[in-house]
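Researcher: Sequence recovery benchmark, item below. Answer with residues only.
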């Protein structure tokens, strides 16, 4: 009998200003789905992507991150099986919305249940290595958010990536300005290549202080503090800002419309603003779109924190 599982993984915004590679928020803006079936247990380890469908199928490069992530998962868990994957791509790639990470996360979540692996760090490692197909090097923020849901922090501990979900209080809503069309190929690699190789200790200290304030603000529901901390990055945002069309006018428009803060979503070019209600986020989204009108075409989307792929898995067979 063939055993199958399906999982849904949501889009995410990594970094959130000062939290480069260590903070990310999964949100309901877009989703990917993966169905995985164990075609044969034992024998040769093989992962096959049977189909890629959905509105973003064509631009997503065959969903290679899902295949690699599952190969990594089988390898790390020492499992031999033939796995078939069917991918539904709804998250636009190349926009800084964690598209490739979400595909990897959904695939890992579905297969993990089929092979009975629950080690959260191992799942994260597999999904991160899968995502590296797109980004050039593993970074675990997007995959951690898509796997676990909500706001997450991630960092290596004893050489392994470890993620924890940060409790969120308050009625956090986000408005996303998503430019399009946009160059997809190699975008994350390019945006990582412009970053400084080292920074003075005092700059690093101020930045991780702001990341911690952001976390404290999320836990206490102080969206005003969260928004302020989000805009304080001194390391990554200044290096990338020249490559993000209209970041400053869009941010200004969001703030004038009542948002608490706005910054680059992941490696961009999308811009994320935080607000305290759906109404406020819609207002910020409209203002961001208007400010962007001279810069190209874009859409704005309002979203709330999303559940993780690991919570979504359904097994059937
Ligand atoms: N933290 C990563 C970066 C996210 O900013 O490069 C990329 O999706």
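Model:
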């Amino acid at each position: 009998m063939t055993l199958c599982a399906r999982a849904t993984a949501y889009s995410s915004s990594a970094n959130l200003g000062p939290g480069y590679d260590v903070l990310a928020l999964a949100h309901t803006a877009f989703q990917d789905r993966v169905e995985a079936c164990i075609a044969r247990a034992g024998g040769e380890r093989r992962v096959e992507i049977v189909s890629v469908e959905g509105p973003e199928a064509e631009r997503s490069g065959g969903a290679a991150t899902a295949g690699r992530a599952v190969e990594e998962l089988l390898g790390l868990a020492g499992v031999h099986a033939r796995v078939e994957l069917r991918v539904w791509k709804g998250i636009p790639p190349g926009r800084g919305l964690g598209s490739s990470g979400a595909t990897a996360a959904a695939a890992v979540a579905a297969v993990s249940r089929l092979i009975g692996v629950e080690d959260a760090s191992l799942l994260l490692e597999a999904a991160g290595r899968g995502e590296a197909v797109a980004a050039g090097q593993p970074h675990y923020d997007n995959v951690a958010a898509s796997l676990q849901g909500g706001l997450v922090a991630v960092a290596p501990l004893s050489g392994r990536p470890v993620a924890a979900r940060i409790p969120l209080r308050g009625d956090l809503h986000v408005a996303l300005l998503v430019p399009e069309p946009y160059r997809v190929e190699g975008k994350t690699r390019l945006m990582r290549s412009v970053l400084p190789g080292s920074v003075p200790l005092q700059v690093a200290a101020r930045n991780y202080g702001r990341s911690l304030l952001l976390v404290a603000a999320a836990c206490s529901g102080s969206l005003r503090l969260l928004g302020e901390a989000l805009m304080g990055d001194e390391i990554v945002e200044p290096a990338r800002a020249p490559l993000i069309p209209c970041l400053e006018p869009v941010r200004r428009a969001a703030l004038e419309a009542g948002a608490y803060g706005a910054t680059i979503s992941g490696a961009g070019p999308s811009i994320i603003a935080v607000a305290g209600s759906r109404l406020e986020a819609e207002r910020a989204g409209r203002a961001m779109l208007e400010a962007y009108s001279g810069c190209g075409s874009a859409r704005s989307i309002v979203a709330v924190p999303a559940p993780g792929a690991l919570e979504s898995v359904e097994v059937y067979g």
